[in-house]
Amino acid sequence: MTFIEDVAKMPLMKLPVRSTVVEVGTGRVLFSPGSMMSDAQLEGAGEVTDIVAPSLWHTDGGPRAAKVHPKARLWGPPGIRAKHPGHPWFVLGEDPWPHVSELQLVPIAGMPKVREHALYHVASRSLLIVDLAFNIVDPKGLGARMVLQLLSDAYRRFAVSRMFMMLVKDRRAFTASLAPIAQLDIARVVPAHGDVVETDAKDRLLAALRERKVALT
Q1: Which CATH entry fits the domain spanning 2-211: 3.60.15.10, 3.40.190.150, 3.40.50.300, 3.90.800.10?
Q2: Where are the domains positioned within the chain?
Q3: pLDDT for 166-201, tens place per residue?
Q4: N or C terminus: fewer CB in 10 A for the chain?
Q5: Per the confidence metrics, is the pTM higher than 0.85?
């Protein structure tokens, strides 16, 4: 597993953005390619078989990556074909996922405007997420405190964003869809925004969810 680190320059802060390349026996998967990644960064990922845009919030990087890797299958969540017509999308959870034994899909329900999908890499016991939780412990930018503390309640800590939870429309479906996480053997959590969580990763994620009144155990 390799990481491609980037930064999105926002009006109030610099948002760290991580894309991940996962090697499995059946291919190489580029998870959550950033929309501002250069061709050189995308080429540096090496040959990939699959490109995954795991959330309706993070889709623009998929078609860009597909231009650099035209032989790769392009994946997105339900609703992706309407958002980006004209691209040969496979739909997560609808079309057969070819890496199911090595990379398990964890679709997050109850959020029709987001439809985030996490991936669990069995070999490394890593859970790859996008916006489910942030871990920006060293934020950059004059407005970082306002964005991460006042709006998200995730300033300098590993936390589920308050803003993310505001988009949950069906709390029961949301909680039920996350229940598999409690059964996974998670050694680390790899967020798209912030530092990788290497210590007590599963316990910390479950605690972050409980803080938002989402109890999985």
Answers
A1: 3.60.15.10
A2: 2-211
A3: 999 999 999 999 999 999 999 999 999 999 999 999
A4: C
A5: yes
